[in-house]
Amino acid sequence: MPELPEVEVTRRSFADRIAGAQIEFVEFGKPLRWPPDCDLTTLRGQRVMAVRRRGKYLLLDLERGMLLVHLGMSGSVAFSVAPGAPGKHDHFSLYTSQGVLRLHDPRRFGAVVFAPDEDSPQAQKLLGKLGVEPLGDDFEPDEFVRALKQRKAPIKQVLLAGEAVVGVGNIYASEALFLAGIRPTTRAARLSRARVERLHAAIRSVLARAVEQGGSTLRDFSNAQGESGHFQLEAAVYGRAGLACRACGTLVRTIRQGQRSTFFCPVCQKP
DNA sequence: AAAAGCCCCTGGATGC
DNA sequence: TGCATCCAGGGGCTTT
Asked: Are A183 and A262 in contact, with CB atoms under 8 Å apart?
């Protein structure tokens, strides 16, 4: 589910409400991807100072240390003052003086990990290899051109790998490549500078637009206030196999790349 | 070093 | 109603 826009939308939907809250206790359900790696009593009494995002990770800054939260494929967060009992798929609850944060994650590919600080081995193991933030000032066309020149794999898979740029997942990779007019199977290193510049702009605009729209709700994504996203309604190619391309009317095609579905318009997107 | 495959897990949709 | 199969927004790990 959650790519950069969904994680950012989630962050914005509870960051202000949880800021300054004191942790009362934490509760885990079934195991998530990794063990939390902390003595839960170290969390008790600490305040949540801020909520940041790095790639698809939510970073909850505490007075001493931080919690890294990943939503995996099916995760969503809810922050509520009167949440009721944890549901079957609520596998992490953070009870605070200002409300309860819950991670709902049926598939349990998500994770909650404690790290003493951002440079610690625990944090670096997860964040260390992440590429540049696509919506930040550091995402520059020149550097992006250089990064792609080194990769011979299909551009779609290079985007998903998250080393050249972070946060672009399966939906937004297909969408950005459509906007840029690039066939997903084209080898990254073979793209001209002009086309990489188009892709750079496309990634920024599609992600920014998706954030504006509250993310994509395909099945069950919602932000921490329970609100759905709307970007899926304006997807150009994702999930539209066999339907007419909105630009030229040609039928949208789907292929498999690295065990993931890719969608593209064979006319609008050139090899 | 980079690329390709496999796997973790549950649930919903589809087909028989 | 039941059962089997396939698919799903991610990404770490192992093997080529």
From this structure: no
